[in-house]
Amino acid sequence: MIPMQLIPAIDLMGGKIVRLTKGKAETAKCYENQFGTPLQAAERWKSEGAGKLHIIDLDAAFSIGDNRGVIAEITKNISLPIQVGGGIRSYEAAEKLLKVGVAQVILGSLAFSDPTVIPKIIKRFGYDSVIVALDNKEGRIMVEGWQTETAMTVDDALEKYSELGVETYLITSIAQDGMLNGPDLQTLSAATMYPGAKVIAAGGIGSVGDLAALKEIGCEGAVIGKALYEGRFTLKEALEKMGA
Fold it and tell me: What are the structural domains of the chain?
């Protein structure tokens, strides 16, 4: 069995590492004192054994600025594949990130507002360059920094985007995000059954046991954020226990 990828998250706001609860900007907690700059945190995750990094530009997601300079600095200095999301609202924005060395762009709002960009990105940068974010609340997909509900369910989205050539999906249960009380195994389990879909789970992971449960249902990867920053377990410990 292929080991499940454990992907540490670096969420950026005002050039610093923060974590939110349920995606609300006002809940931002900064981790600069414990983890240093975003680049220092990226170096730390690499030294602890990360095979990939997950970076979200929250300022861009909330349309209040961006952290593109910080992202470029990390991609330049850290020799790991990096997936980036948050506020990628045009083909040009995705292209810029992929050109500075980002391995994968995570598309949320853009995938829903203009699906035609997906085949364009795939044609230029390859199938693996696009991840579609299926951020959901009570079964409905949410976009625009999790503030706007769409009429689409996770199942609808898997069907639609698979037809456009998408292979990898980041599935986040908004109700669980930042709560550390376990992922939404029901939604994730159903998604992993979809033919050809690679599922990366996010939201609610609070223990190594949660990671084992995600591996059990067939998730390809898990994004770990608050659990690492709050010291619930270390990346090294998780990798050892998961045999990743």
Answer: 5-242 (3.20.20.70)
